């Protein structure tokens, strides 16, 4: 990415995804330092439209910020007038997310066909074949919502999804 394109993307705000599975285990804290790190983007192409306050990255997109890594086929970043991201949409088959967790040797991982992150609300929505991994435990549904501020995870009907929630907990792994 050119220096000009890098300069246009200031920050992704707080870490992009789940810091806990809530329903599966004790809460895990995302690395607090991630949100203070620079954002790096790699893609086969980039379109930056200041009039629409939109940046579009296509082709093997990799977004990193600290320990956060998102891989997707395409990423759309809708910006506030001051260039802070307002809405980040990652799509892929699937789009993937990973992040180190404070005090843990494990990573938080998730995947979905579409991920929507609203930094102002500190909420991520996983849509279509959503899976969240915590160690060997998994949570699966067609729709998962994680509200980081409230430390609340919703899946299935409570997240306006249509499929049942499937959870696998492996005892003794804690």
What distinguishing features does this structure have?
mainly beta, lipopolysaccharide transport protein A fold, 10-stranded antiparallel β-sheet, 1 helix, 52% strand, disordered N terminus
Explained architecture:
The protein has 174 residues and is mainly beta. The chain has one domain (3-168): Lipopolysaccharide (LPS) transport protein A like domain (lipopolysaccharide transport protein A fold, Sandwich). The chain contains 1 helix and 10 strands. It has one helix at 3-8, and strands spanning 39-42, 45-49, 54-65, 68-79, 85-100, 107-118, 123-134, 137-147, 152-155, 166-168. Strands 1, 2, 3, 4, 5, 6, 7, 8, 9 and 10 form a 10-stranded antiparallel sheet that branches. Strand 4 (68-79) and strand 5 (85-100) form a beta hairpin. The longest helix is centred in the first third of the chain and has 6 residues, at 3-8. The protein is globular, with a radius of gyration of 16 Å. It starts with a helix and ends in a 6-residue tail after the last strand.
């Amino acid at each position: 990415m050119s220096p000009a394109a890098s300069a246009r993307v200031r920050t992704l705000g707080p870490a992009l995804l789940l810091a806990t599975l809530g329903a599966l285990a004790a809460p895990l804290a995302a690395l607090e330092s991630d949100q203070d790190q620079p954002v790096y983007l790699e893609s086969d192409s980039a379109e930056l439209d200041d009039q629409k306050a939109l940046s579009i990255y296509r082709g093997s997109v990799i977004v990193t910020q600290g320990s956060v890594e998102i891989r997707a086929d395409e990423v759309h970043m809708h910006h506030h007038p001051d260039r802070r991201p307002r809405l980040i949409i990652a799509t892929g088959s699937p789009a993937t997310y990973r992040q180190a967790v404070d005090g843990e040797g494990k990573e938080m991982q998730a995947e979905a066909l579409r991920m929507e992150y609203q930094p102002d609300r500190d909420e991520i929505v996983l849509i279509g074949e959503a899976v969240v991994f915590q160690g060997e435990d998994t949570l699966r549904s067609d729709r998962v919502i994680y509200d980081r501020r409230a430390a609340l995870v919703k899946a299935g009907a409570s997240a306006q999804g249509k499929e049942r929630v499937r959870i696998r907990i492996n005892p003794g792994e804690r």
